[in-house]
Amino acid sequence: MTRIVGPRKISKFVEDLVRPHVVRPNLEEAYAEMAKDAKREKEALKWAEGTFKAGLNETR
Length: 60
Hints:
- By secondary structure, the chain is mostly helical.
- It has one domain.
- The chain contains 4 helices and no strands.
């Protein structure tokens, strides 16, 4: 790997290789589309409220 990429450049090489498969470039657009789905939003709110309520009942 060092011969192909060069010394001290492996992490940049791996990051450049992996980033397009992990990071979504239009994240804001994707969230806007999801927010338009009323059923999905209702289910998400129900889940979030349930999670919050469950946390209130936990003991330390």
